[in-house]
Fold this protein.
Amino acid sequence: MRSEILQLTEKIIFQVNERMQISRQIGKIKNELNMEVADEKVEQDIRKSILKLSKQIGMDTKFCGRLLNTLLTESVRLQQNQNSPELSPQTHLGIFMKAKQLEAAGKKIIHMEVGEPDYPPPKSVKKALITAYDNGHYHYTETKGIPKLCQAIAKKVGNSITEDQVIVTLGGRFAVFSAFASLLKPGDEVISIEPAWPAYKECAEFIGAKTNILKTTLEQRWNPDIKNLQDMINGTTKMIIINYPNNPTGKILGEKNLEEIVALARENDLFLLSDEVYSHYAFSHFKSIAEYNYEKSIVVSSFSKSYAMTGFRVGYGIANKSIIAKMVKFQATALTCVAEPMQYSALAALEANSNSIQNKRIMKRRLDLICKRLRNMSFTFVEPDGAMYVYPRLKKGVDSDISLVEKLLDLGIALAPGSGFGESYRGFIRISACQPAYLLEKGLDVLELAVS
Ligand code: PLP
């Protein structure tokens, strides 16, 4: 029997290899035809057929689904590698790095690509940093964060959230990664609504989970189709990710849609991760997932955007005690705790709440300015309900997002290509409002010239 197992395993490996070779060939064709690599419809058809087969032969469908997701993820990876580097989507961070290199070589760049506020953190944060040293607050702390900060976050979030439902993380990014790493297994599936912050896909893939994409369109005003979302849920789906106010579109989802998503998560026993790092920049009514009292929800937030503290690297997660315990275990393994002086600085920022209100006003004025200019240039876009960005569609006849962004970088303006937020959005760019108005005007002058 042992030799039989060995032979069968060898056979499986041969066949997997054969599958990969065919996948590479498909990748080549897609590349030649300039087609998108991931095809949800094809994946859905394979999934239906394989899960049916697993049922017929009495195999554990969950395990079968995870195995299938591993194969599908590998196919997408192989096919993406077929693309030439110039065609592969560049993210806003990629452009930011390029812009930094140009600056180091002496070129002046206006940064309209990254989501990093240009204004400083509250003054009280400076004081807190200095007193942290004087008070000896430079040690390891509780992995989940110092109690005072956890209490202050719980109080701020409200909705009867208690201190033990909070974990302080290394920025919002690590809250996302830590939630994925502690709640998902390789082959599990997460549903992400695109266009989306690329980190969801990157973090999921890093731990071997598969991202299933629900696309939204400008025509639908970036509203997700709930029926499609329902159809995408299958035996391996473990989590739905939402992000409102959204990066890059600035959309805030209506309450009805939000309720439907919570209901779907509840019915299918799924985790619901709600990234709310832009909630301080909501210009219309925003409802946090924390208000729904759903036991499998995880709210992610951060001090980076609201208090302009990107470099402090402090964020947090809100979830039930058992989820927090898992995230704490993972965080202990990965990084012990968030730096103590930074936690005290975040505490000071929370106490200086007025700054975030002022920051919201600044951001709204700038976004209005960008929208006005884009309207005059006849761009099509949905005015943002929140966050720090506008996501316009390029006019017909304009080069692809990447070539336009590269051309603009040569002219001293850094913008984010739309495809960094999803393969289907090559016809878009993201403009960030994280610069003073006079620089935004200058940048938009150059954009106007370039596209005219
Ligand atoms: N979530 C979204 C949607 C973002 O756009 C960002 C940063 O750009 C983050 C989370 C993470 O921010 P940080 O790790 O600085 O808290």
Observations:
- The chain is about 50% helix and 10% strand.
- The chain has three domains: 22-83, 89-115+355-451, 139-352.
